[in-house]
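Researcher: Batch entry, complex prediction.
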Amino acid sequence: MKCDEIKEILSGYVDGEARGDEGRLAEEHLAACAGCRDLVRRMRLVGAGIDKIEAAVPPGFRETVFGRMEREDLLPRRRGLIAFPVRWIAIPLAAAAALALFVLIPREAGKVGPAVFTTPPTAMRDREPQARETRERPAAGTDEAARAQTPQEDQRVARRTSEPGTPAGGAGGTPVAAARVGTDLTPEERDIVAHLEVLEDPAAFEEPSEIDELEIVEPAARSKG
Amino acid sequence: MRMKSDEELMGLFRRGNRGAFEELFVRHHRKVIHFCYRMTGDQASAEDAAQEVFLRIARGAATYEPTAKFTTWMYTVARRTTLNFLRDEKGERDRAAASEPEGGAGISPLSRVPGPESLNPESMAWSAELSARFVEALQRLPESHRAALVLNRGEGLSYDEVAAVLGVTVQAVKSRIFRAREMLLERLSGLLE
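Model: Structure tokens for the complex:
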């Protein structure tokens, strides 16, 4: 093959891209042609020269590029330092809330209706220590609570609030709340309290439909003696 | 831990991962700026073009097909960007030449760089002057030939990859690179003896 015909193959050979028989043809020609061997040498120098051409990477190049991208709103927002904890705390909190609802709702639902509890409802049992703690540590500024410093005074307050005709529990208290004021409840008292709660429910009372006048008129025979 | 591929990083960036783009930038910004310099022959233009390349990559992330090699796509973007820069600069030079008095205009600063008549990149230290002569010779090549040679010799892309970037056949790439070499050998004949 003549030199002019094989030059393009030699260029590919220099780049490691001689395909098929081209590699063999190039090597056979180079073995026999000093001129093309020199050409291949100079071709390699050109490649080496191009490889050495490099631009300087200016300081702040990254900041410039990312600054432009920020201005064009091309970058996703950086997440704040608080965002991650909130996200990872929210998931277990939601799970805990769901679990609490699952546990409490069926038992609370059991209170609806005329069912008679032999033991206080779970929620009430759970609240009881809290209520006791509240009693033991009265809120500041409440006159009644401030006065009930000793057990004797505590019992006196309980008696006063449970007297018939006295508004129960002082300000806005219910009979049940009044019953709680004072000493701890015994199981029997809790049973009573449970009944009271049911009775407190207005729906538990049956409204008298119509008054039968015959029931309130005294029978004539009886009046005669 | 396995290092994520460029294609995986682009996928993450498309889904809103900022760090993925930062990693891509770290990996490729030097290649991009060198490519832009080899194509434009000017440091300031190379910096501007390289910035634009990354902006275009970010803007075009939605259109990027994960099946395509990222570097192929990146160089396609880079080549189009530098082409735009060259067209704009040519327009400016033409306008400046038309407005300037005779003499002095149209001469590249690079052509004024003095250099020894016979330099050898292998045997001599690579000097700024030698680099300038190479850069100037490169700029005189047709853009399509220069792009093929730079992508292959400068960026290390195979003929197949160069063909994908330029959108031509492998045979066309082979021919362009050969022609580019011939022209450079002719222009740098004094240097490469």
